[in-house]
Amino acid sequence: MRFLIPLIYSSSTSGHYRITSRLLSAYLTKPQRSTLHPSFNCQPPSMAASEESLRKALAEKQSAVEAHGNAVRALKAAKASKSEIDAAIEALNILKLEKSSIEKQLQAAVSGSDGDGALSREAFRQAAVNTLERRLFYIPSFKIYRGVAGLYDYGPPGCAVKSNVLAFWRQHFVLEENMLEVDCPCVTPEVVLKASGHVDKFTDLMVKDEKTGTCYRADHLLKDFCNEKLQKDLTIGAQKAAELKHVLATLDDLSAEALGAKIKEYGITAPDTKNPLSDPYPFNLMFQTSIGPSGLSPGYMRPETAQGIFVNFKDLYYYNGNKLPFAAAQIGQAFRNEISPRQGLLRVREFTLAEIEHFVDPEDKSHPKYSEVVDLEFLMFPREEQMSGQSAKKIRLGDAVSKGTVNNETLGYFIGRVYLFLTRLGIDKDRLRFRQHLANEMAHYAADCWDAEIECSYGWIECVGIADRSAYDLRAHSDKSGVPLVAAEKFSEPREVEKLVIAPVKKELGLAFKGSQKNVVEALEAMNEKEALEMKAALESKGEVEFYVCTLGKNVPIKKNMVSISKEKKKEHQRVFTPSVIEPSFGIGRIIYCLFEHSFYTRPSKAGDEQLNVFRFPPLVAPIKCTVFPLVQNQQYEDVAKVISKSLTTAGISHKIDITGTSIGKRYARTDELGVPFAITVDSTKDVTIRERDSKLQVRVSVEEAALVVKSVTDGLRTWEDVWEKYPHHTSGSADD
Amino acid sequence: MRFLIPLIYSSSTSGHYRITSRLLSAYLTKPQRSTLHPSFNCQPPSMAASEESLRKALAEKQSAVEAHGNAVRALKAAKASKSEIDAAIEALNILKLEKSSIEKQLQAAVSGSDGDGALSREAFRQAAVNTLERRLFYIPSFKIYRGVAGLYDYGPPGCAVKSNVLAFWRQHFVLEENMLEVDCPCVTPEVVLKASGHVDKFTDLMVKDEKTGTCYRADHLLKDFCNEKLQKDLTIGAQKAAELKHVLATLDDLSAEALGAKIKEYGITAPDTKNPLSDPYPFNLMFQTSIGPSGLSPGYMRPETAQGIFVNFKDLYYYNGNKLPFAAAQIGQAFRNEISPRQGLLRVREFTLAEIEHFVDPEDKSHPKYSEVVDLEFLMFPREEQMSGQSAKKIRLGDAVSKGTVNNETLGYFIGRVYLFLTRLGIDKDRLRFRQHLANEMAHYAADCWDAEIECSYGWIECVGIADRSAYDLRAHSDKSGVPLVAAEKFSEPREVEKLVIAPVKKELGLAFKGSQKNVVEALEAMNEKEALEMKAALESKGEVEFYVCTLGKNVPIKKNMVSISKEKKKEHQRVFTPSVIEPSFGIGRIIYCLFEHSFYTRPSKAGDEQLNVFRFPPLVAPIKCTVFPLVQNQQYEDVAKVISKSLTTAGISHKIDITGTSIGKRYARTDELGVPFAITVDSTKDVTIRERDSKLQVRVSVEEAALVVKSVTDGLRTWEDVWEKYPHHTSGSADD
Questions:
Q1: How many helices and strands (H and E) does chain A possess?
Q2: pLDDT computed for residue B27 by the predictor
Q3: Which residues form the WHEP-TRS domain (chains A, B) (predicted)?
């Protein structure tokens, strides 16, 4: 049952997620976009099994209902006794009830969870998004001009969260790991993206409404059709359901032709007009532009930041004292001209990436700090578990590496560091898993690849990709630019190695092949070891062989006197090799959106008449660390508030004063909605109260100490619990309303 | 002599600088690019005067030499006495020497300084740039593909400097001023940039080589021609020199036709081929692209970040509690597809801007924190001083504002804050001036505009523009989008105002004008107060007036019974107005480049055999704050180094360990070249030395204290002098070599 791997549950919350960054890596191996869009919203197969058996049961029950209906009609026609007919009708009604019950179960099963769950996810998202948009965490860009799909602004609190996330990223990765951070332009000349493969292969398949010209992503239309059918049409049998699921599971492997054929077969039309659709054709997702005034130098807005690092490898390696391993990092904007952006901040046309390229000797992928993460335990979802339909399990990272589940120490180290990064930001560790790429998702050259996936109301979202990409990228740029992007290991003393030497005898070859001599020489020199040794053997036994010269497009006869093939011993002083690259790539916008959802909750107001919104951001990411409220509007309190504000500024604590006359309860509610962890209320000129957002507990602290107390907690030097223990408690019940 | 204002000195170091950002503002007022490229490398006129008198003196001397030569020849022809002829020849030789001396003076005058100065500036720049590129402060982008003009990467130390500058900008402006920071996309739909004027007017004039198609900036070619002529051809007279200078001074005012005519008149050809050139035509400097798959939605890469703020005004005003003043800020990439990028990091095709839009009531431009900057004193270059040929002077900011030189308090406040920002970064206050825009540089709507200019080897470079742009931008977007971008001042109690009421009597107008009634009604209602009152008076006196209806294109007779015009008293509860915007706009790359030059110096090595490079970055911006060196390669010292490294990481101090066996002197030299302020040398397991970069002084500190000492100085909690006083001095003379 290959089509069950991965199992696709096509609920409204499942989706077609794509990493913001390097999944590209995967699809470059294949002419089709086979793994560009992995559908990894996998579910345990028990569910699929139950769905399948439900469909069977439903079909059986339907037959039973029909058979029984016929029986009843037959009894009536035969004028059977009333009691006999009544009994038959009662049995029929029972069957109908049973059928209806199975329908309900099936309905629940295909919507990916119980119906209520889906509804409440939807409602939760609505509440969170309403708060986020109302408080300007983000805003559809160019709103006054009715916006542009897939473009969003971060408003003041969102922008502050983003800059906190990036500052922590820099601290956690660049500073702590001594990475070489670079900053390259977004405008990129064509040659670079030709080398990387983006110009030729960074495409999605598109169809057009044949009358209006409106564009759609071909796979989205097919997917929506299959999902709709599976969810809403309960009459389709188990066989048809299996077929549709097979289509969903193999969606990313379908060629343009196959996709077009399916669209025709299912009679899919343009969603808006019901007009017929064109055949699918590839659309390049890069924003194209032109560099300079001539119009002759095509360029693109980079689809990822990584290429800027690869093309600088030589200089960075030199900067690092010609030593491996080292990591380079870059934070910056990337661009993808999506055909039809969906899901708010999760699939956008411009986004911030933070990427790390860790260059390492392919023969030694150990990591000096590996021991620091070896005991971390978290949800991992290895390939085998996905194939056998199990779910993600808590696994000790050290075990995953030592068993070979994770390919190497360095990859494991970064998985551990990403786990620490995300959970310290406030991502719920129970809704974070590391999912290994399936074989068909990975590029042929990739050694291993894991995605940090975060569960939110849209399902499991790929937020960080951590891939061992071997030497692929550096080789691609070496080949295109002619500049060797290699590292060297100097031997402490020279080593003796045996080398194959192919020496064409140009004089003889010239006599034999005249003008074609050069082609033959080059072809001979290009032989690999196996070919050369076979030729050597053949020449020694037969004296002449037929040899195919591709640049001539034909075989030529090679005689023994035309080439000498031998093995020679040489002394080597160093080993020159193309480093492997291990690449953790972070979709910052996706992480932030998931963080918003994981931080959001509601609680009843004190009067119980409304639900108040709260973001439980840790101080590290909170957009504002502290608010300062004079309890009532009076000059004395306002002066104290200004003194505290000044000391907060000196301490580098972002804060806000609210001197409106609004009730203190309303002001707390406003500040909770922005996720501000602490509020200082000025209710005397000597002592003030500090309130913690989630517990709503308050302590009394002197005016002089207030800023320092807040700073110590936001800087992580002590916890709120420490503060609660040390300072007198404020017990006025009226504060929160 | 209008052409002397501004005086252009066309030395090789002068230039055609344009602010990275909003000079656009200035040129939007005029159909020509009159002030898009202000040439503000002004010089005191004494110099120009001396040049002019030198040219005159040279011409006179030339005539004298010729006349005397003729006289000598005449004497010889007349066979005068030898002593007579010798005396005449001696006099001629003296005249020739005098002429030669004047030539030298003139040569020096036209090259903008003495020739040696220009040379040493060039040499200084070469030394600085060599160090910057070799140590990867910056790198030409895509170097392995031979680069792209006008695109640069920041390598590790440059990237660190940049992120320190931006972090300090955020602290100094966003945090300390409670600004609303936003983060908008670079991809921008056409409608936004149509409203702002960029689509129609953000152009440079270009000419093409008629045979090869190579593009040049028309004004650059004309400018280069004039400069070359003025500097290298000393035979041109004062009149011709004046003409060329006039061309240079008015370069930015020239229309495409006038520019083309000059190019023809001077016979300017393509510099590379000497082929004829096309007529000049406008080239839009924005990178164009297409949003979405249809190809029907043109978009551009934003040329500045400001528009993202303006279109969000309504939401931001609401976020600020519907209160003015408030400031919004944005840091981000901006793009300009320069025709021919020049001068390294100073004119590039992609750059980071940091922009502030401070929205303020046009009737109250006071600033609550103005008193904090009022006593600052620094170089200012008001319009009048430029016009009268004086140079920049130290002026107390408070005086400049109170005298009206600076238009208002808020503008003055930002000028002061920018001064503090730049000097705290390490910009030399003696090479920083605030230059006011001349009347012809400013847009008609701008109230006042000052540029922070920093002097570097390329001349005075515009790095920050601080403009009071009045209501222009908000009005432009209101008009285009139909969304009112206004603020309201609520009155504490309603105010009585007299309002003009124009009430067309539609029935009478309908009878008189039938189908044209609507046009007449609209025209009547559109009258301004003056027109309406004149009509009222005329109707009262004459009973009928001729009235021009522009939508009909003709006069119509209006009778007394067709319209009632009166003044009525109304109660108003608020005043609705479009806020003014004061905009400080920072070209981050330019500031960083100038900072590099201001920080760079060389000093002889201890042996005196070479010059060592040093960047005297303050700890605030230094890319790495500290290096850690084990004095010799030994496990014990390396372990101590690791302990110190760990405590530096905990303290958040970026640092680097160097365990190579290189001599300590060489390691110091390497670290000085990166501008690292402190080096910890491990020469025992208990105490270590800390060396300060510029003084090369060393103190002895315990291993435990080392990180904290470095942290306290880099955080600005104490100075190196404090440390020097407190700790024992290390006096080993051998440390630095």
A1: 24, 28
A2: 31
A3: 57-113
Torsion sign over Cα A223, A224, A225, A231: positive
Query: Least CA distance to B288: which residue of chain A?
Result: A289
B672: tokens are: 């000085």
In angstroms, the separation between the Cα of residue A529 and the nearest Cα of chain B is 31
Q: β-strands A350-360, A326-335: how paired?
A: antiparallel
pLDDT above 50: residue A693: yes
Nearest chain B residue to A180, by CA: B156
Q: What is the pLDDT of residues B241-290, one digit of tens each?
A: 888 888 887 887 788 999 999 999 999 999 989 999 999 999 999 999 99
CA distance B258 to B276: 17
Q: What is the mean pLDDT of residues A591-609?
A: 93
pLDDT above 80 for A615: yes
A597, A122 contact by CB (below 8 A): no
Residue B101 has pLDDT above 90, yes or no: no
Identity of residue B490: K
Size of chain B in residues: 737
pLDDT at position A44 over 80: no
Q: Does B145 contact A654 at a Cβ distance shorter than 8 Å?
A: no
H or E element that contains A221: helix A218-232
- What is the Cα–Cα distance from B565 to B536, expressed in whole angstroms? 6
Interface of B with A in 81-110 (CB under 8 A): none
Measured CA to CA, the distance from residue B546 to residue B190 in angstroms comes to: 43
Q: What is the pLDDT of residue B230?
A: 84
Q: Between chains, do A145 and B192 touch, taking CB under 8 Å as contact?
A: yes
Mean pLDDT of A435-462: 90
Q: Is 90 exceeded by the pLDDT of residue A262?
A: yes
Tokens of A438: 């399936």
Strands A326-335 and A180-181, sheet pairing: parallel
Is there a contact between A404 and A428 (Cβ–Cβ < 8 Å)? no
- Chain-chain contact of A316 with B156 (C-beta, under 8 angstroms): yes
Å between B135 CA and nearest CA of chain A: 7
Cβ pair B283:A293 closer than 8 A: yes
**Rounded CA separation A342/A223 (Å):** 14
Among candidates B26, B13, B5, B7, which has minimal Cα distance to B465?
Answer: B26
- Write the residue in A176, A187, A215 that is nearest to B287 by C-beta: A187
Looking only at Cα atoms, what is the longest distance across chain B? 112
ipTM exceeds 0.90, yes or no: no
Nearest CA-CA distance, residue A687 and chain B, Å: 25
pLDDT at B38 over 80: no
**Which strand (E) or helix (H) includes residue B709?**
helix B703-714
Question: Which residue of A lies nearest to B207 if distances are taken between CA atoms?
Answer: A293
Parallel, antiparallel, or unpaired for β B459-468 and B448-456? antiparallel
Chain B CB within 8 Å of residue A501 CB: no
Q: Are A709 and A701 in contact (CB under 8 A)?
A: yes
- The structure tokens listed for A266 are 């299912």
A294 touches B: beta carbon within 8 Å:
yes
Which residue bears the tokens 């198609």? B213
Helix (H, G, I), strand (E, B) or coil at B130: helix
Radius of gyration for the alpha carbons in chain B, expressed in angstroms and rounded: 33
* Kind plus residue range of the DSSP H or E element containing A283: strand A281-284
Beta bridge partners of B393: B380
Main-chain phi, psi angles of B473, to 5 degrees: -70, -45
Q: Which of A271-275, A320-324, B231-235 has the lowest mean pLDDT?
A: B231-235
State the first-to-last Cα distance of chain B, in angstroms, to the nearest integer: 60
Ranges assigned E (strand) in B550-662 = 554-559, 563-577, 580-587, 600-604, 611-615, 626-630, 655-657
Check CB contact under 8 Å for A184 and B293. Answer: no
> Cβ atoms within 10 A of the Cβ of B605, count?
15
| The two structure tokens encoding residue A634 | 């009076």
